[in-house]
Design goal:
Layout (H helix, E strand, L loop, with lengths): L7 H10 L3 H7 L9 H12 L3 H7 L4 H9 L6 H10 L4 H10 L10 H11 L4 H10 L7
Length: 143
């Protein structure tokens, strides 16, 4: 019998108390996220009424690589996900949710490079505009 889904705090408490990791994992299957990036991106395209080709172009991704991400044959890095979020014109909240749901760390305002990206999202800047700011401030650009 599958256990009911629990809060993150309850899961953490249970993990701390459980010495058998495998039994914990087995008992809490419904509590783990399924990081299907391609399905997540497809759902966003549909929800936002966007065209894949336009998003890939606006994200400044190589066309073949972009289509591979959307088909699930390539797993993107966090920066590529951020480029896709910018191209889809996601809000900050939507971007943070996408990062977490796809298994990446959310943007963190106390991290200088992330702060530049956060500012760009809040100011509704493009990938190119954020890249310019990152470069001007001496941070690695989206590649």
């Amino acid at each position: 019998m599958e256990k009911k889904c629990r809060s993150t705090e309850d899961l953490m408490d249970s993990l701390a108390e459980n010495s058998d990791l495998q039994s914990f994992m087995d008992e809490n299957q419904c509590n783990f996220r399924k990081e299907d990036i391609a399905a997540y991106l497809q759902a966003l395209l549909k929800e936002k009424h966007l065209r894949k080709s336009r998003v890939i172009r606006d994200a400044m991704l190589n066309e073949v690589y972009g289509y591979q991400i959307f088909s699930g044959t390539k797993i993107p890095r966090r920066d590529k996900m951020l480029c896709l979020a910018l191209a889809m014109k996601l809000t900050l909240e939507e971007t943070q949710k996408m990062l977490r749901d796809c298994g990446f760390s959310p943007l963190y305002v106390r991290h200088r490079r992330d702060c530049v990206i956060l500012h760009g999202i809040l100011q509704k800047k493009s990938v190119m505009e954020i890249n310019n700011t990152l470069d001007e401030m001496g941070f690695p650009i989206f590649t």
